[in-house]
Amino acid sequence: MALNQASQLYSGSDRLGPWCSPTGSPAPLSCETGCGEGSWILVCRLLVPTQVSLLSMEEDIDTRKINNSFLRDHSYATEADIISTVEFNHTGELLATGDKGGRVVIFQREQESKNQVHRRGEYNVYSTFQSHEPEFDYLKSLEIEEKINKIRWLPQQNAAYFLLSTNDKTVKLWKVSERDKRPEGYNLKDEEGRLRDPATITTLRVPVLRPMDLMVEATPRRVFANAHTYHINSISVNSDYETYMSADDLRINLWNFEITNQSFNIVDIKPANMEELTEVITAAEFHPHHCNTFVYSSSKGTIRLCDMRASALCDRHTKFFEEPEDPSNRSFFSEIISSISDVKFSHSGRYIMTRDYLTVKVWDLNMENRPIETYQVHDYLRSKLCSLYENDCIFDKFECVWNGSDSVIMTGSYNNFFRMFDRNTKRDVTLEASRENSKPRAILKPRKVCVGGKRRKDEISVDSLDFSKKILHTAWHPSENIIAVAATNNLYIFQDKVN
Amino acid sequence: MMLSKGLKRKREEEEEEEPEKEALAVDTWWLDPRLPAVAQAPPAVPSNSLLDLSVLKLHHSLRQSEPDLRHLVLLVNTLRRIQASMEPEATLPSVPSPPEAPGVAADSLLASSDAALSASMASLLEDLSHIEGLSQAPQPLVDEGPPGRPSGGAPPGLGALDLLGPATGCLLDDELEGLFEDIDTSMYDSELWAPASEGLKPGPEDGPGKEEGLELDEAQLDYLLDVLVGTQALERPPGPGR
């Protein structure tokens, strides 16, 4: 496979060594990536454009410049700006974020130029649109939040880009397309657009397309509504590119992209009597290659793999993944911390990764009784569970991501920390996404949490962690070592160090 | 936001009455003895406080106009674990016997905090399921449950509200009824938990109806506020030297 072949170019070199090929142009693929110390740098920190435009109104600064430079702290951040989902598209050229205010902001990668190799990996605002508005359900007297829970890209099939975005109840398909030409020379309209009196027209001309300033427009192409009673937590595009699924707390529905007034219910775990409800669906995803296979995770720490060929309603799973509880770790909070907050197939389709409150686990699809790898994200919190229960942090839902070659996994933590685990070397690193500690192009310093005893100079003690600063959403470029980390209303983009 | 140091001891007069049970409950329930942090752990916390906290959280969650189902389910499951562990030596009565006589069932259910909580959660979840039937339009193309799954059983609204009545068909685990008979749950005895004949309305009813039944009288409100204030008072920044 290409990834393995490419790695031989660097044989003999340290895994942390240069990622560029000898000519200095960037490596096309990130293979066998290490995540050791000193190899990540901040590319840019991005704010959602409303804040940017607020600044530019007051300070008259070019928007693009703002996004590329390093900003001081501004107190304009509102709750609506909190980023709630981050997702690269399939080529990594585009990066989409959704926020609590129902807005989607798409960033596009800066085009590489020979003169400015160091600018690779920078992303600029490409398009902004309001995906979901707050709604009111009159029947239930409930407000439906406009917060974007998930964004998923469709693979690109023509010049336009398509993505799915969802709030608690409604999924929308958006088309994002560029317009850089406009027709000029209409017969019935003059240059300002006013209608001309046909009687005054003596000659006819053919309108021609003339170049114009690039305009990116987003249009809603489909709205998939009224199919979920409970809150949608996941959407996943099928590998057939014709269908996708949406999952809420108790049900999973299968949609065809072309049909918005019908969906197939493929999983329903709602008990006949709601009093018997003890478990909910927390995440779901399609297999990357097998369009009949999907997994869903539960609040009890289990994963079920289902095959849609087996029956129309996949209530009976094909495989059931659960790790037996460790009796020495048993506490009142065992179930809460075992609740899976995210499940992701590896790119290869051979493994699934799950995130629960304290760990990330990698499972082999062929082994149901226990994970093949378990990584402790922040085990020092195990003795603090009662306090975390008290302040509700124990219910936080962290996501997890694979890198392009499935060799490194990443997830967030508190205090704006995020963690990477190299599955091959078993090394891990803790990094921080914060304004205070990051200058552009500076190398990120690994962080360490001190769990007891003497605290070293650069360590931070558990009791000093800021639990309001949580990294719940991260994304990894599909083929390169570029990562996007969402910290409240800030989006950080880091890349591996380039010589 | 800093971690609180631990929960204050509450209801000390009660703990004096049941010292053995308290010791049992406190020992290992949340501290992993292998971790070094245990050495400096806060003084042993009575699990009554954890129960209080959980009840408070559940109450708060139930009061949301549209509760987060995952949060609710995890809370209820945790609460059940806590309550189950507060009576570790109780032998569970065997289930197979038919439901008890109506009066007995109602009384023991009323005295049981778990029953009350289950009632609240059950009613709410039933409301959710009932309202779902009203609000879905257009109907998704759905297999209405796999064949063989009982479709609906008792009418939803009625089923929930019959909770406190006779022969409800095991809406609650029968074994839980006996667990709490000797626990002083007077703090939970308010019109919050009134039987079907008084506070709860028959038939399908959504949010507003339920809310009226859940109002607390002044004494209960004061108590809840105390717990709330007591809990909040603990969230102070760590002192020097930590």
Automatic annotation (TrEMBL), chain A:
Name of the protein in question: Serine/threonine-protein phosphatase 2A 55 kDa regulatory subunit B
InterPro entries: PP2A_PR55, PP2A_PR55_CS, WD40/YVTN_repeat-like_dom_sf, WD40_repeat_dom_sf, WD40_rpt
Family: Belongs to the phosphatase 2A regulatory subunit B family.
Keywords: Repeat, WD repeat
Domain of life: Eukaryota
PROSITE patterns tied to this protein: PR55_1, PR55_2
PANTHER family: PROTEIN PHOSPHATASE PP2A REGULATORY SUBUNIT B
Claim: Electron transport is one of the keywords in the record: no
Gene that specifies this protein: PPP2R2B
Automatic annotation (TrEMBL), chain B:
Name of the protein: SERTA domain-containing protein
SERTA domain sequence ranges: 43-90
Signal peptide boundaries: none
Region (Disordered): 1-24, 137-160
Taxonomic source organism: Felis catus (Cat)
